[in-house]
Design goal:
Blueprint lengths: L1 H18 L3 H11 L5 H14 L1 H30 L4 H4 L18 H16 L4 H17 L5 H27 L9
Helix pairs in contact: 2-7, 3-4, 4-6, 4-8, 6-7, 6-8, 7-8
Length: 187
Amino acid sequence: MIEWLYHLDINFFRLGNEALANPVFDVVMPFITNVRHWYVIYIAGIILLLVYGGKRGRWAVLFAIITIVISDQLSSFVLKPMIGRLRPCHALDHVRLLVGCGGGFSFPSSHAVNNFAIALFFGSVYRKAMPYLLLIAFIIAYSRVYVGVHYFSDVIAGAFVGAGIGYLVYLLYKRMILSPTTDNTSS
């Protein structure tokens, strides 16, 4: 059964990395997959929330930082070393590698974990933004397969882990910020 799943994962990787290859994606996906290209958007969003988001926006920024710290640390320093799966660009022959392969492990994709965590957190705080945030997270996650550094199972698992973290942090945000309880007992 495990062998069958492994071959299925390789076949889906080949589909996403080779069969769907085209000149437009060959330019766009390496750009999308590079987190440095997103810094301007992240910083602009943070500034907008801090300046125009009121108390809710400022708390959302703080909880988003908590979300990223948890998601990135869990994926990069707990799950990846524990599972120890090699990236397809290290494990397979004839991979279309459009960016550097990287030296770390691949499961789960930290890009997927982090982006789905943020999408679920902010999408839960700002419901109308949810479809757009999920679409962005999906595109970033797929870009990791397209450029040759992750299997589909890496990004699918990353999406689930990240979504779980994002939603759990949202529940904490909701409990602490949106509906805090007060202790009315007298001493």
